[in-house]
Amino acid sequence: MKLHRAKPEGSSANAAEPSRRPGSEEETIVHSLAEGISAEELARVEEMEREVAALQAKPSRKLERGIGITLVVLSIAGLIGSRAVTVRTETGGIDPRWWPTVICALVLVLSIMLIVVSLTKPPFDREDLEVTNRDGWQRLIWAIILVVLYLMAWKLSGNFVVPSVALLVLLMWVNDGRGLKALVFYPLGTVTCIYLLFHTLLRVPL
Question: What's the predicted TM-score (pTM) here?
Answer without folding.
Answer: 0.58
